[in-house]
Amino acid sequence: MKQLKRHGLIAALILGAFWLTGCEKEPVEIVSVQLLTDTDRGSGNFARVLEICLDHPVAIKSPYYHTLSVVSNEGYELKGGSWIRHMASDPKNPCQLRNLYLYLGKEDPPGSRQLIDEYLRPGNIKQLEIKLYAEEPETGRETPMAAKIYRNL
Predict the structure, then answer these.
(1) Is residue 32 part of a domain?
(2) What confidence tens digit (pLDDT) does each residue in 5-60 have?
(3) Domain count across the chain
(4) Spatial separation of the C-alpha atoms in residues 26 and 65, rounded to whole Å
(5) By CB neighbour count within 10 A (0-12 exposed, 13-18 middle, 19+ buried), where does 50 fall?
(6) Which of 18, 52, 134, 152 has the greatest number of CB atoms lying within 10 Å of its CB?
(7) CATH code, 98
(8) How many CA atoms within 13 Å lie on the side-chain side of 94?
């Protein structure tokens, strides 16, 4: 009986190892990040768009989570995060377009969209930090699979 439990435990460990390695997401590196201001087609909703380029198209099998922190030269700070998913329009494109308004949360003050338009523009970004994770971080202490800090954008 003792030996049967031992074999069951070994089998469970082996299956667990196969399951973990089989579900592991492919590592992705951040190649570049830039702020685009010419993507709006008249609505005003896409005046500030972040282009995140990775070393290969992302989320072919599954999405990745990213966090972003942007600080303007005047000290305005925008923080947030969301999933980066496979782009249906061009699955071979390694770049993702993310509207900066999507990083606003319920804790942000009224008028934050105007602050983004006013302060987060090319040439006025003191620091931009981006982190990429396989899963959404729960504690904030998780190690990202990729991270970069850009200054003076």
Answers:
(1) yes
(2) 554 544 444 444 434 434 578 888 999 999 988 776 666 667 788 999 988 776 45
(3) 1
(4) 13
(5) buried
(6) 52
(7) 2.60.40
(8) 10
Nearest CA among 65, 63, 68 for reference residue 88? 63
The residue with tokens 């196969």 is: 18
Question: Cα dihedral sign for 36, 126, 83, 131?
Answer: positive
d(CA 92, CA 87): 8
Residue type, 49: V
Query: What does the chain come to in residues?
Result: 153
Q: What is the pTM of this model?
A: 0.76
Supply φ then ψ for residue 92, to 5 degrees: -95, -5
Neighbours of 151 (CB within 10 A): 10
Using an 8 Å Cβ cutoff, are 86 and 59 in contact? yes
- 67 touches 130 (CB < 8 A): yes
pLDDT in tens, 59-90: 455 788 999 999 999 999 999 999 887 665 56
User: Which domain does 143 fall in, by range?
Assistant: 26-151
CA distance 60 to 42: 32
The closest of 40, 54, 52 to 82, measured between CA atoms, is 52
